[in-house]
Write a structure and sequence with these properties.
Elements lengths: L1 E6 L10 H16 L3 E6 L2 H13 L4 H23 L11 H10 L2 E4 L8 H11 L4 E5 L21 E3 H10 L13 H9 L4 E4 L3 H8 L6 E4 L5
Parallel strand pairs: 1-2, 1-4, 2-3, 4-6, 5-7
Antiparallel strand pairs: 6-7
Helix pairs in contact: 2-3, 5-7
The structure holds uridine 5'-triphosphate.
Length: about 230
């Protein structure tokens, strides 16, 4: 199975979760010994956001701030690479072409940001498309997709399945949220995943959730592209 796993600030947040990174690496190693391949897409995390904001305040352009963000995503990839030994391509991929080539040679390839103006969700979706991934997994703190913003609505319900139209509405409603607020999936990513009908599951940031979804168990929220999926 080929899987794309998008990590936001769940693994690499304000402080580096050493034990979690070790356990994540162990889980991937176990799965690759069973024949799986992984593309791990890493976000910038809280530290990147602090630098991006500081750069803006100091007069940097938005695209320069994005370049700073991209640099952090790659540093975060390098942290993961440190834990993955000889099974991982030893540098973050910097293009989709490089990603495809590296995945022929290694069982795990990491990738961060690619182009200013995008997010790592979009990179993750493009990665899934370009390698014809069997599954796209996004890990988020909330554990899945809710019928409304769980951070502001106490009665928000976790959905075990969400249709494309409903997810599109939820994304558009939360379009203008600031960094760190409820952002279940980037709009560009949604459209890419939809056009290639990639199996998409949003799960929690606990490694048990990732393990369960890789075993084929129902966890988090599955995205339905049409009635037949
Ligand atoms: P993300 O916003 O994707 O990382 O990238 P994150 O916030 O840690 O991810 P989530 O929210 O937890 O899922 C960090 C920054 O890097 C730049 C943007 O500035 C983005 O805010 N970036 C990333 C790009 O400019 N292009 C890319 O392709 C990816």
């Amino acid at each position: 199975m080929k899987a794309v796993v998008k990590l936001g600030h769940s693994l690499i947040g304000e402080r580096i979760e050493l034990e979690k990174i070790r356990r994540f690496a162990l889980l991937l190693r176990k799965r690759i010994s069973e024949g799986d391949k992984f593309v791990v897409v890493v976000g910038g995390g809280a530290v990147a956001r602090a630098y991006i904001n500081a750069s803006r305040i100091l007069g940097g352009t938005e695209s320069f701030a994005d370049d700073i963000g991209i640099a952090f995503t790659r540093i975060n990839c390098m942290l993961l690479i440190s834990a993955l030994g000889e099974y991982v391509y030893p540098k973050p991929a910097t293009s989709l072409e490089e990603l495809r080539q590296a995945l022929h040679l290694y069982s795990i390839v990491t990738i961060g940001g690619l182009t200013p103006g995008h997010s790592t969700d979009a990179v993750a979706a493009l990665s899934a498309e370009t390698i014809s991934a069997d599954i796209f997994i996004k890990m988020i703190e909330t554990g899945g997709i809710y019928d409304k913003d769980p951070q502001t609505h106490e009665d928000a319900k976790l959905l075990s399945e969400v249709g494309y139209e409903q997810l599109l509405q939820l994304i558009l409603e939360n379009k203008n949220t600031k960094a760190g607020e409820y952002k279940p999936l980037d709009l560009v990513a949604l459209e890419i995943l939809r056009r290639s009908k990639i199996k998409t599951v949003i799960v929690g940031s606990k490694l048990e959730d990732l393990e369960a979804v890789l075993r084929g168990e129902e966890v988090g929220t599955k995205v339905k592209w049409n009635d037949a999926t």
